[in-house]
């Protein structure tokens, strides 16, 4: 009896339900199991054309299972209809190109590159990537005359219309509504935390507010990780949402680790401080409301309150210095609201992203400029998007050539096999090939036995059809790649026996074609950038940090009164282009099968930290340009801070060198808070005797504040950078 209980206990532990949060995979599989057989049967009765049936089948599978757009009903329907139109155009183009083998190969290379490159825009465009490739592959690998275009496009159109209706009407999972609700809770918790921090509540209450906010932010972050696997909006909105979560996390981090936590408490009593806190809190709460259907937050109120607060601090410092208060105490008072001021800047950016994430209409000119900038950035080497697009284009073109040159039966399965197993690195491709072959072998055995037992009886095949579709759709995202390949092969055996009874032999053809496609993928994966994204991500991050060093140097020089070497716009454009490449490299990195310490969170920390550096450069340029705070480079205080800036930027340059696998010299020195404080005190002493240098003195103080903040960030990045370097140095087969 005890042995039986122990065995049952082990079985209960070993058999775990599939990971399916929100039952999204169950909904998708059930939808496909109902819709695809019905659409197939309708087309079979109406069209009675084998090729049209293939386009109905693969069209439904491409849109309902592979692409599977999420989001609210209206944007989801628009995404499906757009994909239907684009897929129809690719079907027509592929049919025209199918008349000539060399034209087919050439057009496959061009279409493969263009469609694959389009994933750089993220969102629905990236989600439709494989489905759009599949529409062209089927058309170009099944030769047909131009007069077959209406039937083929008609089959794809039927699939698109049916998929659109099904996705909107049958069990839609409105993940974005849940995500907005969770993020709104996090924003409200952050607003309460900022209010408590600004009103100087006691330590116990502040810790309680931090705990509540931390838990709310973590829940929102985890929800977004699951959401990001299935695009539910345009790339612009998804990008704004991701940026919003980073900014929420940044506010929480700054309040948990305030800039002045180790200094004596000398707090100026200013009404403007309360107004700044109120403006920030109102913007955060309005941002939460915007995510739930309310109006856009008033970011202008933050700007006005911040300028009033800065002017009030200037007056307070001037009065205190005239009253002969010790400059050390005046400096502590000026430093007290450092954290609050930076939080106000981040809240300003966050509010804009909340409006975009909630659905604010983009400026057409800004969108066009973004598209041009993104394409330009990724058409230059090195770029993981450029490399990945070329890898896909070469692999698919080679697969089409092999299928046509050797007249392989069901030649599109060769190209389909290439799509299924080709990954961004050689190691991932090799692993996927093993799983694909094993999965298809299992599928052939099971499906072949079923075909033998069923004897190709139409009633039995039709009864098995929805079950096979459900298995293929459900296994794709919940069980694993090997299981999904087995289920997909069973599905193909059933379908092709419905179209043209061939028994279990169709499974052998499937394995033969898969092996050819897998071999092509392996060759392409080994010859073209086999290391994948882990090294390219390191290089892309190195370029981001290197460009940020130049941008920060320019910004600090403006504030401290030195002559900058370039204009703010020029330096910022270089940063934006480097950041676009790093974003794409990160997207590729997270899709790879990884093991080891260099995980997604470490890479995300390296990438998101660059946002803090960008913010610092932006704010320093605002301080110098818009607000007019500029020091005199000839003063001792400005030179003291400039020396520390040089040390700081040298450390970030060394970080960039390490990430690019260049030899980085050991830092000769570290930023000295004592030196920064002495520089600030010199400026205040001069202000005490010369009332006309107030803004110059404040410029030195603000520059010093940012040096200390960024020095702490650089120290936090050391471990993450070391992990990235270790991963990048590994050979591609590990």
Uncertain residue ranges: 1-15
What about the largest sheet? none
Radius of gyration: 30 Å
Distance between the termini: 47 Å
Helix residue percentage: over 70%
Strand tally: 0
| Total number of distinct structural domains | 3
Q: Provide the residue-averaged pLDDT.
A: 80
SS-based class = mainly alpha
Beta percentage is under 5%
Please write the string of helix (H) and strand (E) elements.
HHHHHHHHHHHHHHHHHHHHHHHHHHHH
Number of helices: 28
Shape: elongated
Short description:
The chain is mainly alpha-helical and 734 residues long. It folds into three domains: 306 residues, no CATH class; 183 residues, Up-down Bundle (Methane Monooxygenase Hydroxylase, Chain G, domain 1); 197 residues, Methane Monooxygenase Hydroxylase, Chain G, domain 1 (Up-down Bundle). Helix content is 78%, strand content 0%.
């Amino acid at each position: 009896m005890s042995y039986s209980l122990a065995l049952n206990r082990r079985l209960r532990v070993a058999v775990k339900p599939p990971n399916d949060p929100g039952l999204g995979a169950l909904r998708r599989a059930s939808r496909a199991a109902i819709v695809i057989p019905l659409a197939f049967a309708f087309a079979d009765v109406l069209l009675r054309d084998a090729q049209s049936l293939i386009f109905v089948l693969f069209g439904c599978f491409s849109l309902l299972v592979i692409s599977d757009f999420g989001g609210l009903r209206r944007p989801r329907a628009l995404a499906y209809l757009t994909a239907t139109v684009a897929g129809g155009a690719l079907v027509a183009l592929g049919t025209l190109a199918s008349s000539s083998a060399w034209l087919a190969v050439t057009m496959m290379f061009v279409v493969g590159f263009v469609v694959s490159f389009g994933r750089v825009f993220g969102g629905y465009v990236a989600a439709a990537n494989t489905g759009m490739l599949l529409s062209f592959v089927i058309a170009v690998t099944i030769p047909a005359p131009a007069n077959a275009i209406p039937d083929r496009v008609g089959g794809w159109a039927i699939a698109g219309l049916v998929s659109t209706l099904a996705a909107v009407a049958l069990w839609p999972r409105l993940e974005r509504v849940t995500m907005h609700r969770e993020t709104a809770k996090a924003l409200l918790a952050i607003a309460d935390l900022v209010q408590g921090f600004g009103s100087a509540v006691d330590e116990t209450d502040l810790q309680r507010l931090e705990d509540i906010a931390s838990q709310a932010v973590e829940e929102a972050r985890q929800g977004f990780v699951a959401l990001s696997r299935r695009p539910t909006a345009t790339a612009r909105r998804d990008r704004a949402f991701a940026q919003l979560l980073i900014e929420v996390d940044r506010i929480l981090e700054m309040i948990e680790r305030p800039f002045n936590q180790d200094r004596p408490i000398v707090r100026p009593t200013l009404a403007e401080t309360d107004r700044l806190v109120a403006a920030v809190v109102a913007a955060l709460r309005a941002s939460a409301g915007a995510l739930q259907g309310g109006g856009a937050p008033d970011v202008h109120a933050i700007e006005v309150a911040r300028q009033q607060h800065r002017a009030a601090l200037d007056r307070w410092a001037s009065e205190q210095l005239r009253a002969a208060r010790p400059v050390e105490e005046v400096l502590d008072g000026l430093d007290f609201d450092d954290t609050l001021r930076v939080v106000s800047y981040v809240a300003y950016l966050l509010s804009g992203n909340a409006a975009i994430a909630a659905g604010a209409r983009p400026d057409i000119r800004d969108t066009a400029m973004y598209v041009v900038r993104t394409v330009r950035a990724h058409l230059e080497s090195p770029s993981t998007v450029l490399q990945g697009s070329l890898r896909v284009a070469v692999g698919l073109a080679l697969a089409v050539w092999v299928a046509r040159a050797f007249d392989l039966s069901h030649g599109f399965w060769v190209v389909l096999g290439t799509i299924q197993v080709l990954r961004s690195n050689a190691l991932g491709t090799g692993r996927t090939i093993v799983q694909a072959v094993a999965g298809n072998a299992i599928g052939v055995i099971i499906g072949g036995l079923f075909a033998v037992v069923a004897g190709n009886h139409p009633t039995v095949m039709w009864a098995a059809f929805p079950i096979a579709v459900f298995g293929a759709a459900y296994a794709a995202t919940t069980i694993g790649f090997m299981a999904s390949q087995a289920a997909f092969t069973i599905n193909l055996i059933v379908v092709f026996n419905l179209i043209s009874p061939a028994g279990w032999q169709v499974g052998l053809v499937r394995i033969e074609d898969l092996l050819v496609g897998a071999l092509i993928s392996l060759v392409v994966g080994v010859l073209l950038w086999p290391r994948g994204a882990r090294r390219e991500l390191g290089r892309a991050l190195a370029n981001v940090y290197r460009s940020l060093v130049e941008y920060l140097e320019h910004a600090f020089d403006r504030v401290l009164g030195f002559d900058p070497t370039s204009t703010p716009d020029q330096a910022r454009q270089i940063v934006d282009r480097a950041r676009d490449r790093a974003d794409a490299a990160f997207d590729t990195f997270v899709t790879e099968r990884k093991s080891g310490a260099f995980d997604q969170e470490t890479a995300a920390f390296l990438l998101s930290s660059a946002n803090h550096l960008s913010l610092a450069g932006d704010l320093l340029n605002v301080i110098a340009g818009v607000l007019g705070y500029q020091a005199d480079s000839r003063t001792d205080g400005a030179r003291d801070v400039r020396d520390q800036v040089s040390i700081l930027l040298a450390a970030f340059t060394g970080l960039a060198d390490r990430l690019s696998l260049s030899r980085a010299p050991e830092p000769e020195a570290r930023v000295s808070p004592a030196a920064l404080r002495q520089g600030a005190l010199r400026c205040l002493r001069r202000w005490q005797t010369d009332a006309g240098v107030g803004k110059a003195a404040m410029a030195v103080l603000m520059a010093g504040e940012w040096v200390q903040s960024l020095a702490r960030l650089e120290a936090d990045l050391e471990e993450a950078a070391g992990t990235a370097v270790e991963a990048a140095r590994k050979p591609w087969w590990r």
